[in-house]
Amino acid sequence: MSWNGHSVLAVVPARGGSKSIKRKNLRQVGGHSLIGHVGGVCAALPWLDHALISTDDEEMAVEARAAGLDAFFLRPPELSHDSATSIEAWRHALHAAEDHYGTEFAFTILLEPTSPLRRPGDVTATLGKVIDDGFPAAATVSPTPGSYTPHKTLTRGQDGRLGFYVEDGALFSIRQKIPDYYHRNGVCYAAARSALLDERHRNLLEERCFGVVIERPLVNIDDPFDLDLAEWLMAREADA
């Protein structure tokens, strides 16, 4: 395997705790758990050398192994609480993997289970921007609907009075005049080893990070309704 001689590691972050949906990463959509879906995508990437789960939960580790992911460590408590960042857990997983496999990975990807509608091509396109085009990092994004952009977002004061979040928001009553905005969708993050381990940054977006735009509808599971929406979107794709 490997990408033109470059070794690649996939990391799947999956904490056991979830406030919005209990045991979220074990919940099923389209007949598979969220962890199972990401395991299936990893199996479809011919250039991927190793894929592992970073979790603090033994049940999720068992589910990951069943989905074809490696699970040879549990994430330490200091990287498992709500305020711990994904990049810290990603760095920890990279170091653990290099110790375990006895090799250094030139590139690595992060695949969040909460984005079950990812396709192998999304991941390949994202990593390609790093390996082939020379960006230190890349991340998938989705277009932000006009009504959710900063120019349309409102604030509400203590007296109940509404105002525009952006000072000149009232000037953008015509949707077509609103600038293009994007939001992260969790499908894929990719980074060169040197970029990920640069501790001057707490977020890869602080790097020269390329945005890979995915136009089709996606869902990032955050509440119970998102599970229903993902189920519907999967069924629609299957019928297309």
Give me a quick take on this structure.
The protein contains 6 helices and 10 strands.
Describe the secondary-structure layout.
Blueprint: E1 8-13, E2 28-29, E3 32-33, H1 34-43, E4 50-54, H2 58-66, H3 86-101, E5 107-110, H4 120-131, E6 137-143, E7 154-156, E8 162-164, E9 182-192, H5 193-196, E10 209-213, H6 224-239
Parallel strand pairs: 1-4, 1-5, 6-10
Antiparallel strand pairs: 2-3, 5-9, 6-9, 7-8
Helical content band: 25-40%
Strands of the largest sheet, in order across it? 4-1-5-9-6-10
Q: From the 3D coordinates, which CATH architecture would you assign?
A: Alpha-Beta Complex
Major beta-sheet overview: 6 strands, mixed
The average pLDDT value, as a whole number, equals 92
As residue ranges, the low-confidence spans are none
Whole-number tally of structural domains: 1
Number of strands: 10
Order of helices and strands: EEEHEHHEHEEEEHEH
Q: What would you give as the CATH superfamily?
A: Spore Coat Polysaccharide Biosynthesis Protein SpsA, Chain A
